[in-house]
Amino acid sequence: MPEMPEVENIVRGIRKYIVNQKIVDIEIIKGDVIKYPEIKKYKELLIGNSIKAIDRRGKYIILKMDNGILSVIHLRMTGKLLYTLQNQPIDKYSCVVFYLEDGNKLVYADVRRLGTLEVVNTDELSRIKGLYTLGAEPLSKEFTIEYLQNILKGSKSKIKSFLLNQKNIAGLGNIYVDEALFLSKINPLRIATSLNDMEIKRLHEAINKVISAGIEDGGTTFRDYRNGLGGKGSHQEHLYVYNRKGQPCRLCQTVIEKTTVGGRGTYYCPSCQRLDS
DNA sequence: AAGGATACCTGAATGC
DNA sequence: TGCATTCAGGTATCCT
């Protein structure tokens, strides 16, 4: 479900409520989402310690604890992290409840339970390979046109698959990739290395544009996504192609098509995003 | 190195 | 109404 703008909104939304709070207890409802270490050890490492900071890297949420350990959460498709008041019912699909010292809770809920919760020491971050190998963040100083040029060079992947690969750019997912390719007028089937300088420049700008719009709109909510306080995003109202199969292109009125690229549903405008010319 | 299929899971939507 | 199939904001792994 959540791509970088959604995860960013979750983190920003709950930060002021949970930082400097101690985790006084942890209730495990569906323990299979905890991947490392084993549940008993996981609880031991967190209970009695305070949350010093909450940050995001790619689609990962990282809680820094005052004992130097990191609690790392990835929401995958349907995970939610919900700050829930003392007197409020917890989500129907709650898996793990972190009880905070002020009586309120931080709840990890996940319908499909594909998400992952892990605890590691700062010196064993490489244990979480997906986090360790992330590429540059959109909107960051590191993410320059030159950076994009360099990573595209020599890649025979289709551009859609290339952009979904977190090792290249961190945080893009199925929605924002389709939107960025539309804005830069690039067909999703194009081979990465075939993009010319003009196209790379447009793509770079489009990625930053869709990601910042997504963040400002509070994320995109189709079904499961909720921010850390349970609210929906509104970016779904501003999408150009994603989930718009059969509807007219907002720029040229051509009917938006849906196909499959690298196993993922892919929306595009056959007129704005030509494969030839 | 790349790309496909498969696996992890459940629920909603669609098809017959 | 019921039952089967398909698909979903993701990624790791195994195999050509």
Automatic annotation (TrEMBL):
Catalytic activity line of the entry: Hydrolysis of DNA containing ring-opened 7-methylguanine residues, releasing 2,6-diamino-4-hydroxy-5-(N-methyl)formamidopyrimidine; 2'-deoxyribonucleotide-(2'-deoxyribose 5'-phosphate)-2'-deoxyribonucleotide-DNA = a 3'-end 2'-deoxyribonucleotide-(2,3-dehydro-2,3-deoxyribose 5'-phosphate)-DNA + a 5'-end 5'-phospho-2'-deoxyribonucleoside-DNA + H(+)
PROSITE patterns, per the entry: FPG_CAT (PS51068), ZF_FPG_2 (PS51066)
Keyword annotations of the record: DNA damage, DNA repair, DNA-binding, Glycosidase, Hydrolase, Lyase, Metal-binding, Multifunctional enzyme, Zinc, Zinc-finger
GO biological process: base-excision repair
InterPro entries named in the record: FPG_cat, FPG_Glyclase, FPG_N, H2TH_FPG, Ribosomal_uS13-like_H2TH, Znf_DNA_glyclase/AP_lyase, Znf_FPG/IleRS
Listed cofactors: Zn(2+)
Molecular function terms from GO: 8-oxo-7,8-dihydroguanine DNA N-glycosylase activity; class I DNA-(apurinic or apyrimidinic site) endonuclease activity; damaged DNA binding; double-stranded DNA binding; zinc ion binding
CDD domains: EcFpg-like_N (cd08966)
Membrane-spanning residues: none
Positions with a binding annotation for DNA: 112
Domain of life, per lineage: Bacteria
Presence of keyword Nucleotide-binding: no
E.C. no: 3.2.2.23, 4.2.99.18
PANTHER family: FORMAMIDOPYRIMIDINE-DNA GLYCOSYLASE
Protein role: Involved in base excision repair of DNA damaged by oxidation or by mutagenic agents. Acts as DNA glycosylase that recognizes and removes damaged bases. Has a preference for oxidized purines, such as 7,8-dihydro-8-oxoguanine (8-oxoG). Has AP (apurinic/apyrimidinic) lyase activity and introduces nicks in the DNA strand. Cleaves the DNA backbone by beta-delta elimination to generate a single-strand break at the site of the removed base with both 3'- and 5'-phosphates.
Subunit organization: Monomer.
Name under which the protein is recorded: Formamidopyrimidine-DNA glycosylase
Lineage of origin: Bacteria, Bacillati, Bacillota, Negativicutes, Selenomonadales
